[in-house]
């Protein structure tokens, strides 16, 4: 336990005046605390119950807590015993958020991500989610190379992850909120919880998240202003779709035989597999999954006349949908489009003589110089701002 919290909860003035406490984002107790990422999260309930006076009321809040096992885990952690607490569920469907799930035309192991460009062409403020910091960097470099050289592109595209300095991450959020020239944040799940930035119109998930709850949390960063049209775009690897199909086939057959690709299937779960392989309306599927029981929740986008049909209902949609760009102040220079360079004529590779190859010493020297250059670029960027 953090020593500061130990000091606070031992303070007589604090204990005499506290009457209510709440645990926000309670789905993380199961999602993060259930594994090795944040195991301490599973002890949140023990901390609250053990450190605070027994007459202090406790509540838990979440927009993406799935009924069933996840809810039972959270209730057990928080000490909510059957018959001694009230459970209220409200719909988490967002009428102004379109759900689009498409298969990637490329893998995520390379340095080119052309599937992003059709969405970025709308020039809307966008957050792009990547599973790892390393993938963040490759996406970031790919997009930078599609823009003219200069410091302006360092404002238009920003990185946000745990390896960035805290003040850099804070600056990135501030730019996305207030600077019309900041269009894109490339981020990990670090930007996936609790952020309310109404200027973000689109959320693109490059690859499938670990859970459906995380998918909705990341997608929910878009369209926070109900008056805007938001998009939750999920770009899935073909391999993930195959894993989902195999998972469901194995689950439905109730086979006890170990699967050949069991390593791939360990990252799959029932809710995620159902979402990836769904042919029905995605809104209907998610409403059922999260226990949303509002009027029309069981109707597909066409039957319910949703103004933003999901990708599964879109082929039957009659009409057009416009995705307006993020507003720019009058007189502001327009954002230049991202465009892939024309393919170059391949040049035959020639065998290099051994004496022209980089030695280990040369590589070490280059590494030191490049690190110095990185610091110079960061300093120049701060001075420019």
Automatic annotation (TrEMBL):
An example Gene Ontology CC term for this record: chromosome
Keyword hit for Hydrolase: yes
UniProt keywords, alphabetically: Hydrolase
GO annotation terms (biological process): double-strand break repair via homologous recombination
EC top class named in words: isomerase
Disordered: region residues: 325-365
Position of the signal peptide: none
EC number, as in UniProt: 5.6.2.4
Basic residues: compositionally biased ranges: 349-363
PANTHER family for this protein: BIFUNCTIONAL 3'-5' EXONUCLEASE_ATP-DEPENDENT HELICASE WRN (PTHR13710:SF120), DNA HELICASE RECQ FAMILY MEMBER (PTHR13710)
Family that this chain belongs to: Belongs to the helicase family. RecQ subfamily.
Protein name: DNA 3'-5' helicase
Lineage of source species: Eukaryota, Fungi, Dikarya, Basidiomycota, Agaricomycotina
